[in-house]
Input
Amino acid sequence: MIDTRTAPYAALLLRVSLGGLFLSHAALKFFVFTPAGTAAFFGKVGLPPALAYVTIAAEVAGGVALILGLWTRLAAVLLIPVLLGAIYTVHGSAGFFFDNANGGWEYPAFWIVALLTQALLGDGAFALTAARNDRSVGALAGNFSR
Output
């Protein structure tokens, strides 16, 4: 049975955690590896270097959307290809465990499952999309009650 009293808070906790992880990975690429260094790495593993900039932007936009609760389901689903790309290009050949050299695919795969879970759960508590929808529904209900 799902506890409907606490489920929205579980979705909030998952949403904010996922968003924070994406922002931290974008920050790592931006401040530590630098965008140019990240682009060079992407080129080294056979990806177009320009895809590094797209990836950083996706991680920032997706992370912010998740934290704020804006288009949560869509943001969660759209971030999955970033992780699939990481598994395919770098982590997959390193084996399963993430503590292997080059990090295995264990962590990105778990992250994908967490994103799918978020997409299934939806916004959760304190989401801007839900608040906007609640105001719209409330305004609509107010119009019918006159």
Q: What stands out?
A: Residues 7-141 form one domain. Confidence is low (pLDDT under 50) at residues 136-146.
